[in-house]
Batch of 2 targets.
Target 1
Amino acid sequence: YTTLAEADPEVAKIVEDETWRQFSGLELIASENLTSLAVMEANGSMLTNKYSEGLPGARYYGGNEHIDILENLCRERALKAFNLDPKLWGVNVQPYSGSTANFAAFTALINPQDRIMGLGLPDGGHLTHGYYTAKKKITASSIYFQSFPYRVDPKTGLIDYEQLQVNAGLYKPRLVICGASAYPRDWDYARLRKIADANGSYLMSDMAHISGLVAAGENSSPFDFCDVVTTTTHKTLRGPRAGLIFFRKDKEADIEQRVNQAVFPACQGGPHNNTIAGIAVALKQAADPAFKTYAKQVVTNARAIAKVLSSHDYKLQTDGTDNHLVLWDLRPLGLTGSKVEKICDECHITVNKNAVSGDTSAQVPGGVRVGLAALTSRSMTEEHMDIVADFLHRAVQIALQAQKEAGTKLLKDFVTAYSGNGEASQQLAAL
Ligand code: PLP
């Protein structure tokens, strides 16, 4: 074997440049994190070469004696990381990503064209929770199922559980999905369970964003109330890019078989064993007391950012946060999230534009999402958050000043000064 640098200097250079980008700037994308070297080593290992369709002990390929040990270890660690009794809970560790985990969970639980209710995308929900627009069914979750999203209360930004209760009573969904991509507060799982029970619905949590916080006990556990819990493994959990599906075994005798068959062969082929090795490593790390300290610091940092931004009178959805992210509503300032994202990009601060409740455009939404998982992995604490929040404040002030001067010249000058990139300033003017 030759090294990457020898075999393909072009790709090696891209990897090096991206590595430099990740460490030279401030990474504030709420769905991202910096996984450990150990996870990356496992992820880049020889295990990528192996086919192992099926489950441990029941494969469609030979030579799986080591892979079986690995997958069993990963399953054990997944249950342990979330403090689950193996008699009550099982887990499938093969999903390639959060989206495929969700679709496999739907496939296991409900039938095509059954009704689902998830949090709407503009309210913080994820695409895979049934998103569609007036013009189009956008995702498989709305193409293959009937979807009626629930909302946050536009005044408070909090989930409108009361309206959900009323609507679920009328709509009678087979499945209620909780979990979000841009919701800064903890969930009332007990209330959701009551709503699900009143309507004969399954309750599924997609805890992708907060799973590291759940493992560490920083956010409440969906396992106390849900039938199925899915997660990605690469956000606050800090593993490789993949998904997990946990299922409660004590209510339905065949649920284990349904989930496993939904993953393979219904939705996927051979598991990515290199990734499963990475997940196993991440789960070991998540069970370590040091991870609890990390997760606690993530929440402390998010709250510290929220506090500074609020002190400047900026509007934050729900006026604060219980988790790793802050959803910043820029609409009262007359700014778009896309403009602020672009300005931050030019300063090597990576945030992402995000819809806030009431937004109609995902391309030019009214907010940005700010997440603290990655910076906390770089050992930043609340003291550093004053500086980070100040950078964000300055970026927004520049955008405002430019708008006040009724033109984009200042913005262009700013971008050109920071990046020397005329093309970037033109793009910015269009946002
Ligand atoms: N579920 C939630 C709540 C998410 O936020 C995301 C991605 O950000 C996903 C699922 C999809 O995960 P993936 O990108 O791994 O498919």
Note: The radius of gyration is 22 Å.
Target 2
Amino acid sequence: MSEIASVLDTDALAVEANSFASANGIQVERKKTEESEDNLFLGAPMSLLPNAYPEQEFKKACDVAPAFNELVERVSQDAEFLQQTLGGGVSTMDPFTAKILKLYHQVYVDDSTANAPAKSADRLGILRSDYMLHSDDDSYQIKQVELNTIASSFAGLSCKIANMHRYLSSRYETEIEEFLQTNRKRNDNDNPPIVLFVVQDGETNTVDQRLLEFALWETHKIPVVRRSLTRLNSELSVDETTGALKLLKQEVAVVYFRAGYAPTDYGDGEDGIEWNARLTLEASRATKCPCLGYHLAGTKKVQQELARPGVLERFFPEKDETNKVAAMRTCFAGLYSCGDDATPEDLEAIRDVLDGGEAKYVLKPQREGGGYNFYGEELAQKLRSNIERTGDSLELSEDLAEFILMQRLFPPEQNAVLMRGGKVEGTGDSISELGSFGTLVVGSDGKVVHNRYAGFLLRTKFSGVDEGGVASGFATLSSPYLC
Ligand code: ADP
Ligand code: MG
Ligand code: MG
């Protein structure tokens, strides 16, 4: 019998959890099939109980959020840095990143008067910095897995999971304790400005998105319209004099992207209607969340470049009274380039993999959404087949330029009960990844109007599973039990 099942009646608790989840909308949408176009909602993947989490490290993730917000803002404004980091080998090997970079230049760098509305638009960031606990000596510390600047999901559902765990653990206190010990305003006219959610066709994580929509309506009476990039193309226009973005007759004040981060969101290809829609949105005066610069600042290649000595300092040249540079740096794990900018240290890490040390690393391409990383033998193979080694010297094939090599993190294992589709999927050892949300509003003059920590997400998966991601089917939603 598993550790938890010996203490708790997990089946009975799963029934409670499932009912709470249904009553409170902790749900995802079922993929529509050819047989059925019915709208059906299922229980979201979730962890039955919270996971123990060291309070001090949790607090660090909250406290450092505004610093990462500011970093993204500054990186987004540094065209030279973005070009240097993403222009060379990365762009050659990754047409998607190349296209985003090209649009960024077209809209923000080129000196055309058509670009005035975009340049004078405010910027909005909803970011999520993800961490795993890792111990190099005797204490666990948070290390950044990645920084998400586009479509950072689960702010909506995450609070509800914490509520469910609060409910279960107060109602079933005695039983669970034992387990836990072990482990803006509306304009007065007929066409008020709207917020446009850019979404994927066939999206299943709609409840998480709708929670933001309902909150906008309830708190500010701001209507949300949801559209795919494909459909938008024919419905958008930009007023030539003011730069106002119109969806049919309504002005769009804010464009919130929950799509557009994957090549598959641009079905029609390189010069297709989806890319055209993205350009129209970006070139308007509407606030984009994220703007192209923020999108680029969240790439894995930029993450790797920012970890190099002196690069954070370049973005924070002023007196650093709150020590934010040091606070961010302590969150960085080992990050190494596999491109022609690889330093002797980077090459040493690559050599370590070739010599059999692959278990200590993860190889990542410039992609979002989970499921693309290389681990273990597959990682070693990928490097071996793209590197020529003569003695101590390494010749890296250009195919590797879009990849970064990262130190693999080993978070502490805990016993967990994971649920999927309303059923207990299994019980066993699990590891968790903490997401720390940050929100940021910056005027076109670069003045930071709002910069805050904005909540957390804890995702839990079985220890044997390499990849993460809830929507991609690897992880479940959970919450931290601070200890
Ligand atoms: P994506 O943008 O696709 O989410 P991530 O960098 O978050 O890319 O990688 C996906 C998943 O792979 C993470 O959620 C995590 O589970 C796992 N992972 C990524 N980097 C590491 C690492 N350095 N150590 C251990 N696991 C990792
Ligand atoms: Mg990501
Ligand atoms: Mg991720």
Note: The first strand starts at residue 27 and ends at 29.
